Every structure is written in C-alpha cells, then in structure tokens.
C-alpha cells in the first residue's frame, strides 16, 4: 500500500492523441506525469495544444487515443472520481454574468454534492481568500476582469480539489493583480494542492513552477525541472544598431555575431561576459553603437533553441 501511494501521480498521461473532426492534429501522442504536490507548468506558444490537453484531462474534449489518470483514476472507467479530484479555471471567462458572485460559488459547491452548510462555509472561505466577499451580492457582470478571474478560482476551489488546473490564468490581468494571484496560488500549493498551469509567459512559469513541460505543435519538446530549463537560457542576445554600415558581421572575440541588416548586428553573450566586455570589444574595433536592445522574449529564444536541437537530433534538449 505504501509503495502504491508513493508511486501514484497526481496526473499521468500516456500517448495522448487528439485529432479534431476537421483533421487538425492538436496532440501527436504526448506523455508526461505530475507528482503529487508539484507546481507544474505546461508551456507553449499559441496553438501548441495546451488547451486541448487540459480539455481532455477535464473531460471537456474527447481524446482520440491514449490514457489519462488523475490520482490513479482512469478517465475512461472512473471519470466521476477523476473529476472530483480536479478544479478547473478555464481560459475563457465562462461565468453566468447575471448571477450573483456568492451564488456562482455556492451553486458550484452544490454540483459537487456539498451539503448546504458546508457549501456556505466554503463559499465564504474562498470568496474571502480571493478578496471578493464584499462583492458577494453583486452580479458577476459588475466585476472587473481581474475580479472575474479570481471568482473563477474561488469557484474551482470550492470543493477543495487535490489538483487545480489553470489555463492561462493571468492572460489580460494587470501586473499587480497577477502578482497577488501568484501569491495565493503559492499558498494553496504549499498547503498541499497540486497545481498545473498553462501559460505562454515564461516569467509566470519561472516564478511559480518547479517543473515545466514545453509543448510545441502537439509534441512535448522538453520535460524537466524548471532550474534545468533555465540553465539553458544563460545566453542573452542583444541587437545593436550600428553607426556604420557593414557587409559582413564584424568578429568580436568571445561573442557570436550575426549581421541582420547592414547596420543591425545581433550579438550573443554567454554567462562569462558582460556588457562592459562587449563595449570594450566594440571600441577596439572602432564600432560605434547607436542603440541596443535585448532580443525578443526569452521564451521565444528557448523555443527556438529547443526546436533547433530537436531538429539537429542533439542530446542538449534531453533532461540533464
Ligand atoms: P493552445 O492552448 O496551446 O493555444 P489549442 O489546444 O487551443 O492550443 O490548439 C491546438 C491546435 O488545435 C491548434 O492548431 C488549433 O487551431 C486546433 N484546435 C483547437 N480547437 C479546435 C477545434 N475545436 N476544432 C479544430 N481544431 C481545433
């Protein structure tokens, strides 16, 4: 029994495939598992297949093939038990906007069979936790965007699921509210709830998650501890706008350079150098810089690197 408990995963996905009726293959056979108590990010660009995967786990989307187990309950033959374990915060705001805030959470408690008194207690507990208790008698429509998202979190938590899944929880939410949502998610994770979130913000995954799976075009291209993945990002790329024109990229010792346009130079800098070193090199070659910016976002860079290494068949993308 002890062994079974230790081996049990909060979520186990095997060879999960999804092809939509129109022939779109959204998932090409993915495998991953989430440990009990983990804070897990499913990261990927738009269209990668994240929402499809979440939809299948929460039985909103039918899978084409594969296996899904939630705390040991297989969704094919033990769906009710699997669903009991899950709280979902979907990407789209799917509240009844004419219903009162308190009633939305209380009604959800009813779906999960909570007795009236417990439903009342939990409604108050989670509306207070998400700073919405004062708004309990207002209709959802009157809430701001950030409040609506918090209301969806309260609703997802009212039956106290063991696994909370959030699909792009902070999309369109301003930075202050985003950070307070992060604090709250950290708290409930520390209190024992396993959390999976999808995001296309690396910063969000980086700040919250211990483990990350990166999904691209329906395939998992990375599945590792967050620290392992971040180590791959220790190179930065700067784009320099130059005063002079060049035909070929000037060589700068210690840096990889690529000429993008006749006055635009990309410089890749590793962890052993800093910007002072770069400017010394530029001075030594009499190259004047008009402006400098950090290239794109780090997530894009990470994707590019992972996709490149996948195509090159390199072992670099493997979990160290
Ligand atoms: P993500 O959540 O990572 O943005 P999705 O799971 O929403 O990705 O989409 C994965 C792929 O499946 C995309 O190519 C998308 O266009 C397609 N897709 C999603 N939902 C449907 C649907 N209902 N019918 C057909 N194709 C879909």
CATH architecture of the largest domain: 3-Layer(aba) Sandwich
Question: What share of the residues lie within helices?
Answer: 25-40%
Order of strands, widest sheet: 6-7-8-3-9-10
Q: What is the count of structural domains? A: 2
For the largest beta-sheet, the strand count, sense and barrel status come to: 6 strands, mixed
Write down the CATH class of the largest domain.
Alpha Beta
Helix and strand pattern? HEEEHEEHEHHHEHEHEEHEEEHEH
Report low-confidence residues grouped into runs of 5 or more. Answer: 314-320
Mean pLDDT: 89
Rg, Å, rounded? 23 Å
What distance separates the N and C termini? 32 Å
Which ligands does the model contain, each kind named once?
A: adenosine-5'-diphosphate
- What is the count of helical runs? 11
| Shape summary | elongated
Q: What structural class should be given to the helix and strand makeup?
A: alpha/beta
What is the assigned CATH homologous superfamily of the largest domain? Answer: P-loop containing nucleotide triphosphate hydrolases
CATH topology of the largest domain: Rossmann fold
Your description of this structure?
With 320 residues, the chain is an alpha/beta fold. It folds into two domains: 229 residues, P-loop containing nucleotide triphosphate hydrolases (Rossmann fold), CATH 3.40.50.300; 64 residues, 2-Layer Sandwich (Alpha-Beta Plaits), CATH 3.30.70. Helix content is 35%, strand content 28%. The protein is built from eleven helices and 14 strands. The strands form three sheets. A six-stranded mixed β-sheet has the order 6-7-8-3-9-10, sandwiched between helices. The protein has a four-stranded antiparallel β-sheet with strand order 2-1-4-5. A four-stranded antiparallel β-sheet has the order 12-13-11-14, with helices on one face. The protein starts with a helix and ends in a 9-residue tail after the last helix. 33% of the residues are buried. Bound molecules: adenosine-5'-diphosphate. The site of adenosine-5'-diphosphate (ADP) has 12 residues, from α2.
